[in-house]
Specification:
Layout: H1 3-23, H2 26-47, H3 53-61, H4 65-93, H5 100-117, H6 124-134, H7 139-167, H8 172-175, H9 180-202, E1 207-210, E2 213-216, H10 220-242, H11 253-270, H12 278-287, H13 293-325, H14 333-365, H15 370-377, H16 382-407, H17 411-432, H18 435-450, H19 468-488, H20 507-531, H21 545-553, E3 568-571, E4 577-583, E5 587-591, E6 595-596, H22 598-614, E7 618-624, H23 629-634, E8 638-649, H24 661-672, E9 675-680, H25 689-703, H26 717-720, E10 725-730, E11 736-744, E12 750-758, H27 766-781, E13 785-792, H28 804-815, H29 822-830, E14 835-843, H30 848-861, H31 864-868
Parallel strand pairs: 5-7, 12-13
Antiparallel strand pairs: 1-2, 3-4, 4-5, 4-6, 7-14, 8-13, 8-14, 9-10, 10-11, 11-12
Length: about 850
C-alpha cells in the first residue's frame, strides 16, 4: 500500500471520528429531528402549493363509506397482527409467565397509544416495559420481549422487500434505478440471509446476552410465526392507506409499499408525534402526487382511521376496564387485566390531553363555518368571539404541555387538565358554535375523570416544565399545526394590517394572533424548562432532640453524619428510629440506613419510598450495609456494590509489626519532637474553635477545593460542637497543628472520625501520628472497633460474566487513579489489616443508577465542577 493511500485512509478515519463526535453532541441530536421536520414541512408546502383547503374538504366528503370500511378492516387486521408480536415473543422469552390473551391485549393497546403519541420516550418500548415489569418479568425478560418484537418487524420487512426485489414487480424499478441483475442479487441475498437465520434459530438453545442481561431467542417455529405477524402488520397498515388513495394515482402496490416504508422511517427520525407532517411530505413526494387534493384527503382520512380511531378505542376500553376493576375485591382474569391496564393509564391520559389540545389548535388554524359565525353574530359581540378564539388556542397548547405532567402521574396536572378542557368546551362554542369539538372536550373530560385514581403524585415541580425530548416533540407538533394554518390561508396575501383586522370573516387574522399567543406560551415554557430547574437550596436544618439521642445511642458511628444539618428527617411515630435524607429535586436519597429500632426502620424505608413516588421522584439509599437488604429488595430496588468499609479491631491493638511501621515511627517521632496528643471534650471546644477554623481554612486553600456535604462533614461550628476532638499540638508553643472530630458509637462499639485537617506547613508526619494516637487511645478506652471509612469501588469484581455495573465499577477502580486515588486509598487502609465489609447502593435499576450517583455527587461535591476540584 502506498504512503498516499495510507494518508487518505487516515484522513478518512479522522473524518469519521469527527462526524461521530459531532453526532454525539446534545445540540446536534436535538437539531437533526427539528431540521428534518422543517425540511419536510417546506417540501409539503411546495407540493401542496396549488391545492385549496375547500377542495380537500370536498374530497373528504366525497369519499365513499365502502372505502372507509375497507380501511377500517385493514386497520383491524394490522392491529391483530401487532398483538401477535407480543403473544409469540412472550412464548419465546417468558413462557408461562404472562397469559397469552393479556400479552395480546398489551401489545395491541400499547401500539395504539404509541402510534398516536409518537414520542420516542413513551412509545412501544416504554409502554411495554411498564406493562411486563408490572406482571413480574425481570429486566432481562422484558428486554427480550421488546427485542424479539423488533427483530420480528425487521424479519417481516426483509421478507417482503426480498420477494419484491427478486420478482421484479411492476413499478419497483422506479424506486431503485439499478439493473435487474443487481436488484435480483440484493433480493436473493436478503432471502438467503433470512433463511440462514431461521436455520440457525431452529438448531435450538440460542441465547443472546449482553452486560449480564440475557434472554432466549425464539426457535424456528416461533421465528416463522413472528415473521408472519410482521408481514400482516406491514401489509395491513399499508393497505389501510392504499385503499383510500385515488384510483388514477398510477402506481402499483409494490411501488407504493416501498415509498410507505420510507415515509415511516423518515417520520421516526423526525421525532414528530406520529411522524405528523414528515410522513405525509415523504409519501406525496415519493408518489409524485404534488398538487392533488384527493391525495391529501386520503392521508388525512388515514390519520383518522389508522392513528386516532385505534387510540380512541383503546382509551375508551382502558377507561371502562379500569372503572370495572377498581373494586375492593378483584380476582382471576380481572386481576391480570388491572395489572396490565394500570401502567398504561398515565400514557393514555397524556395522549387524551395531547389529542384534545391538537383538536383545539387545528380548529383555531382552520376557517370557521360562516353559518355558525352568522348565528353567533345575533347574540355575541365580535370582541367576545375574538377572545374565545385566542382562549381556545391557548388552552390547546397548554393541554399539550400539561400532558407530560399527566404522564408523570401528577395530581395537579390532572386538575389543571380538567379545568383546561372545561375552558376548551366553552371556547369551542363561543368562537364558532363548533358542537363536534365541544362534545369531544366533554368526552375527554369524562375519560380523564375515570382515570382520577392514577394521579396521586403531589410533586412541587412545575407541571409545565418539559425535558428536552418532550420539548423537541412539542415544537415539531406545533410546527405542523402552524403549517396547517398556512395551508388553509395560502390564498390570503400577507400584510401587516392582518394583525389588527377584527371582522366576522377575519379567519386569517385570528389565526395569526392565536399563533403568536401559542408561540409566546411555548417560548416561556421552553426557557423555563431549559434554564429553570429547581434545585433545592441546602439550608441548615434544626436537629430534632430525638435524632440527637438516637445518633448518640447508635453503635454504628456512620449515623453521626446525620448531624451535619444538610438533611431532612423521617421519624417513626414512637420515636425509636429515623432516616436522614436529602432532596435533590429529582430524587430523595437517604444517607445510610435507618438509625434505631429495626422494625421501625423497615417502616421508614417504605415511607420514604412512598413519599418519593407521590412526588414523582426517584428514591435511593446510599451507603448501606446488608442489614436491610431484604427490605430494599421488597421495594423492587436494585442492590449495587459501591465499595467496601474498613474496620480495625481495637481489642489488643498495637502498632507493632511491619505493616504499621509507618504509623509507629510517626507517633514516636512526634513524641521526640515535643508534640502532644490530647482529647478535647465537646464541652471545652468553644475556646479553640477559632484556631481550628484557621487550620481548616489553610488546609482547604491548599487543596483548591470546597467543603463537601451529605456523606462528609464540613467545618461548621454547630456540627462540630456535637463531638469530642483529637488534637496534636506543639508542646513548646501550644499551637495546634492537626485535629479530627471523633465519632464514638454507643456502648463503645466503634470509634471513627469525619473531619481530619492539619496545617499545610506542619511536619509531614503529623497526620500519621494523629491517626496512630487516636487508635491507641480508642483501644485504651475499651472501644471494640475503629472504622476507617469506605474505599470507593473497592472489592468489585470486574470479570467477563459479572454484571454491567460491576464491570464499570471495576474498570473505574483500576483505571481511575488520575481522577481519584481509589487503589491508593484502599492500600493506605490495608496497612492496618482491617476487616472489610461491603458497602451498597439501593436504587431503581437500569439507567436510574447512574442518575442517582450523579445526584449523590451533586449533594457531596456540588456537581462535576466540585468533583474535579
Amino acid at each position: 500500500m502506498s504512503i498516499q493511500e495510507t494518508g487518505e485512509e487516515s484522513r478518512a478515519v479522522r473524518w469519521v471520528e469527527r462526524i461521530t463526535e459531532l453526532l454525539e453532541k446534545p445540540w446536534v441530536r436535538l437539531a437533526i429531528p427539528l431540521l428534518i421536520t422543517l425540511i419536510a414541512l417546506t417540501v409539503l408546502h411546495d407540493l401542496s402549493a396549488h391545492v385549496k383547503w375547500a377542495d380537500v374538504k370536498a374530497d373528504i366528503a366525497g369519499t365513499s363509506w365502502r372505502l372507509l370500511f375497507f380501511a377500517v378492516c385493514w386497520t383491524a387486521f394490522s392491529f391483530l397482527s401487532l398483538s401477535f408480536y407480543d403473544v409469540f415473543a412472550v412464548q419465546s422469552v417468558a413462557e408461562g409467565k404472562v397469559p397469552l390473551p393479556v400479552a395480546g391485549m398489551a401489545g395491541a393497546s400499547g401500539y395504539a397509544v404509541s402510534n398516536c403519541l409518537g414520542f420516542s420516550y413513551i412509545t412501544g418500548t416504554a409502554i411495554r416495559y411498564r406493562i411486563y415489569a408490572s406482571l413480574g418479568l425481570d429486566l432481562g425478560r422484558v428486554a427480550g420481549v421488546i427485542a424479539t418484537s423488533w427483530v420480528a418487524f425487521w424479519m417481516g420487512l426483509v421478507l417482503i422487500l426480498g420477494i419484491l426485489l427478486t420478482t421484479h414487480p411492476d413499478g419497483i424499478s422506479k424506486v431503485m434505478p439499478i439493473s435487474e441483475i443487481t436488484e435480483t442479487s440484493i433480493g436473493v441475498a436478503m432471502l438467503i440471509g433470512l433463511i440462514s437465520l431461521f436455520i440457525w434459530l431452529s438448531s435450538g438453545g440460542r441465547r443472546l446476552a449482553f452486560a449480564g442481561v440475557g434472554f432466549n431467542l425464539p426457535g424456528g417455529r416461533l421465528a416463522g410465526l413472528l415473521t408472519v405477524a410482521a408481514v400482516g402488520d406491514l401489509f395491513g397498515a399499508s393497505m389501510a392507506l392504499y385503499v383510500l388513495m385515488p384510483d388514477d394515482l398510477g402506481v402499483g402496490y409494490p411501488y407504493f409499499f416501498t415509498i410507505y416504508i420510507a415515509a415511516i422511517a423518515v417520520g421516526i427520525l423526525s421525532h414528530a408525534p406520529g411522524g405528523l407532517g414528515v410522513f405525509e411530505a415523504t409519501l406525496i413526494a415519493g408518489l409524485g402526487a404534488s398538487g392533488r387534493s384527493d391525495v391529501i384527503a386520503a392521508l388525512l382520512l388515514y390519520r383518522v382511521v389508522y392513528t386516532f380511531l385505534p387510540f380512541g378505542i383503546a382509551s375508551v376500553s382502558i377507561a371502562v376496564a379500569s372503572a370495572l376493576t377498581q373494586r375492593h375485591r378483584i380476582g382471576g382474569a380481572a386481576t391480570w387485566v388491572y395489572r396490565v391496564i394500570r401502567p398504561i393509564v398515565p400514557m393514555v391520559a397524556a395522549g387524551i390531553a395531547a389529542v384534545a389540545g391538537v383538536i383545539l389548535l387545528v380548529s383555531g388554524a382552520l376557517p370557521a363555518s360562516s353559518q355558525s359565525l352568522g348565528a353567533l353574530r345575533e347574540f355575541l359581540p365580535l370582541s367576545f368571539v375574538e377572545a374565545s378564539h385566542l382562549v381556545g388556542s391557548a388552552v390547546g397548547v397548554l393541554l399539550i404541555l400539561v400532558s407530560r405532567g399527566l404522564f408523570r402521574k401528577l395530581y395537579r396536572a390532572w386538575i389543571v387538565a380538567m379545568i383546561l378542557m372545561l375552558a376548551g368546551f366553552f371556547a369551542s362554542l363561543a368562537k364558532g358554535l363548533d358542537t363536534h369539538e365541544a362534545l369531544s372536550m366533554l368526552g375527554t373530560i369524562a375519560l380523564l375523570a375515570l382515570f382520577k385514581g392514577a394521579f396521586y403524585r403531589v410533586s412541587g415541580a412545575s407541571i409545565f416544565r418539559l425535558n428536552i425530548p418532550w420539548l423537541v416533540s412539542v415544537i415539531a407538533l406545533l410546527a405542523v399545526i402552524f403549517w396547517v394554518g398556512l395551508f388553509a390561508y395560502k390564498h390570503v396575501e400577507y400584510q401587516n394590517a392582518l394583525w389588527w383586522e377584527f371582522a366576522w370573516n377575519g379567519d386569517a387574522s385570528r389565526f395569526l394572533r392565536s399563533s403568536l399567543v401559542v408561540a409566546v406560551i411555548l417560548g416561556v415554557v421552553a426557557v423555563n424548562s431549559l434554564f429553570g430547574r429547581e434545585i433545592p437550596q441546602v439550608k441548615r436544618t434544626e436537629i430534632p432532640e430525638v435524632v440527637e439521642r438516637l445518633v448518640m445511642e447508635s453503635e454504628d458511628t456512620e449515623a453521626q453524619i446525620s448531624l451535619t444539618g444538610d438533611k431532612q428527617f423521617l421519624i417513626s411515630p414512637d420515636e425509636t428510629a429515623f432516616i436522614a435524607y436529602a432532596d435533590t429535586g429529582n430524587a430523595l436519597i437517604s444517607k445510610g440506613e435507618p438509625v434505631g429500632e429495626e422494625h421501625a426502620g423497615q417502616q421508614l424505608i417504605w415511607q420514604l419510598r412512598e413519599m418519593a413516588d407521590r412526588e414523582g421522584k426517584l428514591c435511593a439509599f446510599y451507603s448501606v450495609s446488608t442489614k436491610y437488604l431484604p427490605t430494599f429488595l421488597d421495594l423492587g430496588l436494585s442492590i449495587l456494590k459501591i465499595g467496601e468499609v474498613a474496620r480495625v479491631p481495637l481489642e489488643d491493638f498495637s502498632l507493632d509489626g511491619k505493616p504499621r511501621k509507618r504509623f509507629r515511627q510517626a507517633k514516636n517521632r512526634a513524641e521526640r519532637e515535643g508534640y502532644v496528643f490530647e482529647i478535647v471534650p465537646k464541652e471545652k471546644l468553644a475556646p479553640i474553635l477559632p484556631e481550628l477554623r484557621q487550620i481548616s481554612d489553610d488546609w482547604l486553600a491548599g487543596k483548591s477545593g470546597e467543603e463537601k456535604g451529605f456523606a462528609l462533614g464540613g467545618f461548621d461550628e454547630e456540627y462540630l460542637s456535637y463531638f469530642d476532638h483529637a488534637i496534636l499540638k506543639n508542646g513548646e508553643t501550644g499551637k495546634i497543628v492537626a485535629f479530627a472530630n471523633l465519632f464514638q458509637g454507643g456502648n463503645k462499639s466503634e470509634l471513627s472520625l469525619d473531619l481530619m485537617r492539619y496545617e499545610p506547613d506542619s511536619p509531614s508526619f503529623v497526620m500519621d501520628a494523629l491517626f496512630a494516637e487516636m487508635m491507641v487511645w480508642g483501644s485504651e478506652q475499651g472501644f471494640h472497633w475503629f472504622s476507617l471509612g469506605a474505599a470507593p469501588f473497592s472489592g468489585i469484581e470486574n470479570r467477563q460474566l459479572a454484571s454491567l455495573w460491576n464491570r464499570i465499577g471495576g474498570f473505574v477502580y483500576e483505571h481511575g487513579e488520575q481522577f481519584y486515588h481509589f487503589e491508593g486509598l484502599r492500600s493506605f487502609k490495608q496497612k492496618f489489616e482491617p476487616e472489610w465489609s461491603p458497602n451498597y447502593l439501593a436504587s431503581p435499576g437500569g439507567l436510574a443508577a447512574p442518575r442517582i450517583l450523579y445526584e449523590v455527587n451533586i449533594l457531596i461535591s456540588g456537581g462535576l465542577r466540585g468533583l474535579t476540584k
